[in-house]
């Protein structure tokens, strides 16, 4: 198994390339974006040293399914999925905030709550809650989109006052966020899962708001298994979950939280294979479909050649 941790393509019409924590995004004529979802994995805003085979394919294909399942709520950027690891879409001007929505007190929100805070992003959290308890209704806790380093919590009022997003657009983003989360929760419930929290990114093109990037993947979302949730909650036990949180927990247990001076623990082949298995498990659980490895490619060079060929053919058809 070979992980794709770096790409360096030169497509026809390519203007620039942006390398994110996980994605390599190619700007084609300022009209299209080619988003290659690599096998890189990040946690605590740090890219870990080892890639995770098939992770990029899992993320790309889950996102494509959920983008297709929400087109009646709002348009999205996706135009084609020419390769298991690639989505090609329209280039939009992104909003400079990420819309995080939480149905349960978990992860970052729980860590803040446990530290004594009862307000997050200007939103009040009820007293007396326990970890992984459901909120009376989902709360929206946006963050800034950092070009590098950590995204920062920010309130609705701060976003509007600073001019990051207009009030009209922001309130529309909130409505879209709640509607997409509701749809994702319904789909997850049918598959025996609970969609705990997630984040969405939006952009604008020709005055229209589009849903962008990935949605409802294990990188952007947290899922619990519904079976046994109430019993585990009552006993104060950890929930059985499918998300990237297990990677964060493994790192924390080995003394790493992305803080200065901390060393990333050794990612052995067994650790890497275990993470691959968890990503595939989530794919199969959330889609109800058997995961099929993309193509017959096996080496990194063959996979990169496959991607280049598939994307080039796609771009010819978009001309």
UniProtKB/TrEMBL annotation:
Might you give the EC number(s) for this enzyme? 6.3.2.6
User: Enzyme group, top EC level?
Assistant: ligase
Could you tell me what reaction this enzyme catalyses? Answer: 5-amino-1-(5-phospho-D-ribosyl)imidazole-4-carboxylate + L-aspartate + ATP = (2S)-2-[5-amino-1-(5-phospho-beta-D-ribosyl)imidazole-4-carboxamido]succinate + ADP + phosphate + 2 H(+)
Question: What are the record keywords, sorted?
Answer: ATP-binding, Ligase, Nucleotide-binding, Purine biosynthesis
> Ribosomal protein: is it a keyword of this entry?
no
The metabolic or biological pathway listed in the UniProt record of this protein is: Purine metabolism; IMP biosynthesis via de novo pathway; 5-amino-1-(5-phospho-D-ribosyl)imidazole-4-carboxamide from 5-amino-1-(5-phospho-D-ribosyl)imidazole-4-carboxylate: step 1/2
One GO MF annotation is:
phosphoribosylaminoimidazolesuccinocarboxamide synthase activity
Q: PANTHER family of this UniProt entry?
A: PHOSPHORIBOSYLAMINOIMIDAZOLE-SUCCINOCARBOXAMIDE SYNTHASE
The molecule here is called Phosphoribosylaminoimidazole-succinocarboxamide synthase
**Which lineage is the organism of this entry classified under, starting from the top rank?**
Bacteria, Pseudomonadati, Bacteroidota, Bacteroidia, Bacteroidales
């Amino acid at each position: 198994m070979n992980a794709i941790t770096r790409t360096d393509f030169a497509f026809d019409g390519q203007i620039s390339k942006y390398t994110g924590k996980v994605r390599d995004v190619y700007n084609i004529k300022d009209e299209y974006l080619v988003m290659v979802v690599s096998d890189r994995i990040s946690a605590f805003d740090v890219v870990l040293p080892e890639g995770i085979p098939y992770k990029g394919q899992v993320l790309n294909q889950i996102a494509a399914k959920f983008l297709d399942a929400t087109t009646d709520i709002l348009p999205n950027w996706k135009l084609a999925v020419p390769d298991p690891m690639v989505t090609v879409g329209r280039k939009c001007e992104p909003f400079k905030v990420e819309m995080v929505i939480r149905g349960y007190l978990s992860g970052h929100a729980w860590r803040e709550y446990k530290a004594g805070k009862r307000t997050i992003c200007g939103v009040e959290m009820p007293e007396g809650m326990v970890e992984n308890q459901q909120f009376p209704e989902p709360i929206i806790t946006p963050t800034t989109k950092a070009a590098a380093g950590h995204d920062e919590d920010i309130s609705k009022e701060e976003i509007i006052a600073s001019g990051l997003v207009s009030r009209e657009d922001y309130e529309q983003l909130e409505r879209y966020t709640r509607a997409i989360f509701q749809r994702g929760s319904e789909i997850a419930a049918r598959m025996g899962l609970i969609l705990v929290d997630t984040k969405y990114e939006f952009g604008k093109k020709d005055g229209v708001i589009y849903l962008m990037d990935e949605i409802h993947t294990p990188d952007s979302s947290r899922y619990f298994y519904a079976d046994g949730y109430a019993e585990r909650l009552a006993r104060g036990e950890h929930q059985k979950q499918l998300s990237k949180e297990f990677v964060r927990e493994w790192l924390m247990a080995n003394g790493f939280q992305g803080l200065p001076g901390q060393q990333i623990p050794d990612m052995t082949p067994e650790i890497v294979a275990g993470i691959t298995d968890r990503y595939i498990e989530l794919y199969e659980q959330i889609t109800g479909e058997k995961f099929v490895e993309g193509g017959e490619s096996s080496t990194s060079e063959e996979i990169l050649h496959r991607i280049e060929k598939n994307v080039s053919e796609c771009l010819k058809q978009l001309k």
